[in-house]
Specification:
about 0% strand, about 450 residues, ADP-ribosylglycohydrolase fold
């Protein structure tokens, strides 16, 4: 029997109960009713299969998901999703400005950086932090400085901490042959298509139309899969982000944000507003802020006139300062600035964010900011620190690599060991992009950045 993950109400309810606790709703009465009816007490691990629920439990789960959505939240005033309210809460919202030059070479470096950082993190995605450290140490690669490898790895350790099943065949040092398909690269491709079809004034409905036309449903995960399902059920954005979607503050919108920064060099306000329109198809509040933060930071970096610390500060100007994401990023930057040992930084971040799922936007955005800060924007240092920090390793590596790559300014500024194995070739199931080179993607991105 085919079990569809991330969409069945009985699988979603545990995650929604956890989300309610985090965003200031009071879910205890709903949780008690669910347990009394025989529902599982803990959230299903994202992507895992569960035993099909009885018809009664499935109907009850739907009702309870809707009931939870209607509960008032104590954080609603400081964590809005509407753009006008976000701007009201951001006293340093950047002034709109005309796009500044960003060379194709700088954009190519950022595309390459995104791919390399993603590929570095793929084999250890879903592994616990201690497992990542043990695997790297066992092969003489700690502190992390190059690709993971299975060569010389003790069999017992390999059994205890197996590589990501889907990724090991294409992402270990001995197996890399171009950039394999990954959603962290699919979404930037989709957003290039989005700008080509609809221009920079696209709407969330335009994003939805493009997804239904081009994006295979099986290539979506967590919040994106729920929103996709909602679209097929006739639900329109922005309700697609809220309806029975407990993943709406996870990392999905963040990994779609780069193109919005790349195409608005020197204009972080415009980049953040584009990212907001994209993100609200699938996400709310902190999930949206993570995308806006990333887009604004990349837009500021794309001109080449600022260091990484200035760019991260710019990213924070588009995030409500009292939100959990802003507080987490500020803490991460302060910690990385004052602590010599990055392992100690990571350990403290994991402790501070232990209640969040490893795919949640808050701990992952904090880790990205810490990695970039601690490495002072250096490319190798940034992607290796991001991946060594655990959590959603391919996604944090990708975003750190994109920002560090655009700051580096040219493909030749990235060490050959990261770019040569990519072979200037990207595999994807999106549109006609399969096999495209990163130089061609930079050309297309540059065209969209300066298209009137």
């Amino acid at each position: 029997m085919l079990r569809l993950t991330w969409v069945q109400p009985e699988d979603l309810l545990g995650h929604e109960l956890h989300q309610a606790e985090q965003d200031g709703r009071e879910p205890s009465a709903v949780a008690a009713r669910w347990r009394a009816a025989g529902g599982p007490g803990a959230p299903l691990r994202a992507g895992a299969s569960s035993v099909p629920a009885s018809p009664y439990l499935r109907v009850l789960a739907r009702d309870l998901l809707d009931e939870l959505a209607d509960l008032p939240g104590r954080l609603a005033e400081v964590e809005p999703t509407e753009l006008a309210r976000i701007k009201e809460l951001c006293p340093a919202w950047p002034s709109a400005s005309a796009a500044a030059p960003a060379s194709e070479a700088r954009l190519e470096a950022s595309w390459l950086g995104r791919a390399a950082g993603c590929l570095l993190g793929k084999p250890v995605e879903k592994l616990p932090l201690d497992g990542i450290r043990q695997l790297a140490r066992a092969t003489g690669n700690w502190p992390l400085s190059t690709w993971f490898t299975a060569r010389g790895l003790p069999d017992e350790l390999a059994r205890r901490h197996p590589w990501n099943r889907r990724s090991a065949a294409t992402s270990l040092a001995e197996n890399i042959d171009g950039m394999p398909e990954d959603d962290d690269l699919n979404y930037p491709l989709l957003n290039l298509l989005l700008l080509t079809r609809y221009g920079k004034e696209f709407t969330a409905a335009d994003v939805a139309r493009l997804w239904l036309d081009v994006l295979p449903a099986g290539r979506t995960f967590t919040a994106e899969r729920v929103a996709y399902r909602n679209l097929l059920c006739g639900i329109e954005p922005p309700r697609t982000a809220r309806h029975r979607n407990p993943f709406r503050e996870w990392i999905g919108a963040l990994i779609r944000a780069d193109v919005h920064g790349w195409t608005n060099p020197g204009d972080p306000a415009a980049a953040a507003e584009q990212a907001h329109r994209d993100a609200t198809l699938t996400h709310t509040a902190n999930g949206v802020y993570a995308a806006m933060f990333t887009a604004a930071a990349i837009a500021e970096a794309a001109t080449g006139g600022h260091d990484v610390h200035h760019c991260l500060r710019t990213g924070l100007t588009v995030v409500p300062p009292a939100s959990r994401l802003a507080r987490a990023v500020r803490h991460a930057i302060q910690l990385a600035s004052s602590t010599r040992d990055f392992d100690a930084v990571v350990d403290e971040l994991h402790t501070a964010h232990r209640t969040y799922h490893w795919v949640h936007a808050i701990p992952n955005t904090a880790l990205i900011a810490a990695a970039l800060t601690h490495a002072d924007g250096d490319f190798t240092g940034s992607i290796c620190r991001a991946v060594a920090g655990g959590l959603d390793t391919d996604s944090t590596g990708a975003t750190a690599g994109s920002i560090a790559g655009v700051l580096a300014g040219h493909p030749t500024a990235l060490p050959d060991r990261w770019t040569t194995p990519l072979k200037n070739r990207l595999t994807t199931s999106v549109g006609d992009f399969n096999g495209i080179g990163f130089d061609a993607l930079a050309h297309l991105t540059h065209r969209e950045a300066h298209r009137s």
